[in-house]
Amino acid sequence: MSWEVSTMPCRKSFFSPTLFKKNLTRFWPVWGLTSLAGAMLPLWLLLGLVANRTSLLANNHMAEDFAEMLYTVVAYGVPYITIAYAILCAMLVWGYLMNARSVGLMHTLPADRTCLFVTGTASGLAMMLIPYVITGTLVSLIALCWGFMDFKAVCLTALAVILLAVTYFGIATFCAIITGNIFAVPALYVLLNFLSLMVTALFSSLYTGFFLGVKESNYTISTWLCPPAKILQNFEMVREYVGENFDTRVPVLHGWGTLALYAGVGLALLGLSWLLYRLRHSESAGDVMVFPWLRPVFRYGVAFLSALTIGRLFYTMLWESVFQKGDWYDAVPMGFCLAAGGILGYYIASMLLEKSLRVFNRRSLRGVGVVCAGALALSLWLAFDPFGLETRVPDAADVARVQVEGYNISLDLYAGADDEYIREVVDLHQTIVDDRAYIKEQESLYRAYGEPYDEEGRPERQYIGLVLRYTLENGSELERVYHMNVTSDRAADPDTFDGKLEALVSGDRALREDTVTVPRGCKLMDMSLYDRVQQVETHIDGWDAVLDALERDLEAGNIPRRTLFGGTRRDDSYSLSLQMDFRNEDPDLYNDNYREVAVYPSMTETLRCLMDMDYLSEEALINLQLDYLQSFTTATGDHSIENWGAVSDEEIAALMDEYAPGWRLD
Known about the structure:
The chain is of the alpha+beta class. The protein has four domains: 16-290, no CATH class; 300-384, no CATH class; 396-505, no CATH class; 520-659, no CATH class. The chain is 57% helix and 12% strand. The protein has helices spanning 2-7, 17-26, 28-38, 40-51, 53-57, 62-76, 78-93, 100-106, 113-146, 151-178, 184-207, 220-224, 227-234, 256-279, 295-320, 331-354, 363-384, 419-434, 436-442, 445-449, 488-491, 497-505, 508-516, 543-556, 604-612, 618-635, 649-659, and strands spanning 236-242, 248-254, 399-406, 409-414, 461-472, 477-487, 522-531, 536-539, 576-584, 594-598. Strands 4-3-5-6 form a four-stranded antiparallel β-sheet. Strands 8-7-9-10 form a four-stranded antiparallel β-sheet, with no helix packed on it. The chain has a two-stranded antiparallel ribbon with strand order 1-2. Strand 3 and strand 4 form a beta hairpin. Helix 9 (113-146) runs antiparallel to helix 10 (151-178). It starts with a helix and ends in a 7-residue tail after the last helix.
C-alpha cells in the first residue's frame, strides 16, 4: 500500500506518469513492430543513396525530390496506415473497459476518471506517433548527412501526421467509450467512418429502380460525413510552378483545411468521450451499448441497414429473378421484403443487446410494428413519389445552363444566348416525364428483341441514352439520365419525346455546336488534315480560311444533319477529316480539347478551300470518291461493280451523282 501511495498521483491529478509508462511498456510489441516496419523506408532511402551516390550528389533538385517523397508518403500512404492503426491503439488502451474485472480494478486506483481518460488518450496517441517519429528521425538524419534536408517539408509532414492521428484516434476512442464489447469496437469504427457512403449507396440504388431518370446520388454530402473519403479526396500532393518565369516546379501539399476540420472533429469526439466516460457505469462492461439512450438507436439502426441489405437480397432472390417483368422494381413486393429484412435485423440487434436468444415476446411487437411502418412508408414513397423526385422538371426561366449529352448530340446551352434551345430541352424533358410509364414498359424491348431493321437496312428502333445536366439560377444542380427506346414511327410525330429528340438532334444548334465550330470558351491551337485512305496527316497553317469555308458550308446547308436513324455515320463521309486541337480559356467551362470534323461529299466549300490551299489534290479527291463509293455501295447492298480498279473517272462521276448529289465543285 505504501508503494501505491508514493508512486500513484492523487485524485486531483490529470495525468498519471506511472500508468502512461505501463501502457507503453505493456504494449511495446505493437508500436515496436510498427516502428520496425516504418524503418524500412529510411533503409530503402539509404541503400538507394549508397548505390547511386555519385549521380544523386550531382542532382541539383535533391531537396525538392526529398520534399516530394515526404509529401507523397503522407498524402497517399499515411492516411491508410493511420485509419487502421488508430483502432488497434484504441482497443489496446481502452480494452480494460470491456472486461468487468479489469474495469473494476482500474476504477479502484487512486485516480479519478479524468486522469484515467487523459492518460489513456496520451498513451494511445503516443503509440500512434512513436513509429512515425522514429521513421521521420531516421529519414531526416539521412537527409542531413547527404545535404538535402528540407526542414519545412519535415515540419509539414509531421503536422499532417499529428492531425491524422488526432482525427482517427478521436473517432476510435468514441467508439470504445460507447460500447462494452471488444468485438463491437472495430465494427462501430468502420460504421462511423463509412456509414454515410454505405447508406447513400444502398438507398440510391433502391430508388433508381423506381424513378425513371433519377441517377444515383453524387455523394457530396455523404462524402463530407466520411472522413477517410474526404481526406483522400482533398488532401493531396501537387506540383506547382513558381518563380518569375514559372520555370521551377515544387511539390506542395493541398487540403490543409480538410485535415484541420477533421482534426477538430477528432478533438470534439475526444471531449465528448471524456464526458461520456465520466457517466459510464463500470457494470456495463460486456454490453454492446453501455448507455440506455443509445440502445434504441442501435436497434433501429441495425433494422434499417438490414432492410436495405438483407431485404434487398430477399427481393432479388424471391421476386426479381422469378416474377418481376422488365427492369423496374415492384413497390408492394419490395415493401414486404424490406419489412422482412428489417424485422430480422431488429431481432438480431435485440439479441446482441440482451445477450440472449429470448427476445421473441410481446414487448418486441411494438418495435416490429415500428419497423413494418417504416417499410410501409418507404414503399409508399417509392410507389407514389409524393415529393416529385421523378417528375421534377425545371422552369426554363430558372435555368442558367444546361448540358445535353446523348446519341449523336452534345450541347452546352446558356441563358441569354440560347434561350430558345433551352426551352426546347425543357419541353423535351417534360414530354419524357409525361411518357415515363411508356418508357419503362418499352425499355426492356431492346434487350429482348434487339434492333429491327427496315427494308433499306435502317434501324426501326434505337435504344439510346440521354443526359440532361441543369445548373439553375440559384446555384443548385439537377441531373437526369434517361435510357429510352426510340422508334422511327414515333420520331415522325413532333408531339412525342421521340419526335422532339429527333428535332433536337437534327437541329441547327446540334449541327453548329457539335460538328464544325470551335467550342465556346476555347481557342483553336492546331489543325491538321487526315486522309484515312493514304493514312497521311498534313498540318494546316491557314486555319481561318478553312473555318470560313466550314461556316459557308454550314450556312448553305451542305453539312448533313444528324438523325436518330441512319444519319451522318462515318461511312456516309469521305475518308477525310479535319482534326482540331483546342485550349480551354474559360476555367468555368468544360470542353474537350480535341474535335474531329468528318468531311462529306456535299461540303463543297471546304473541299474547294483545301484544294485551293494545295492540301488536297485532284488525284487524292478521286481516290477518296472511289473509296467512298466502294464502302457506301457495299453498305447499301449494291454489288453491281465487281472490279473497282477498272472504274473510269466518268463512271465515278455518274455514281457520285447517284449516291452523293451536290458533290461537284464547279
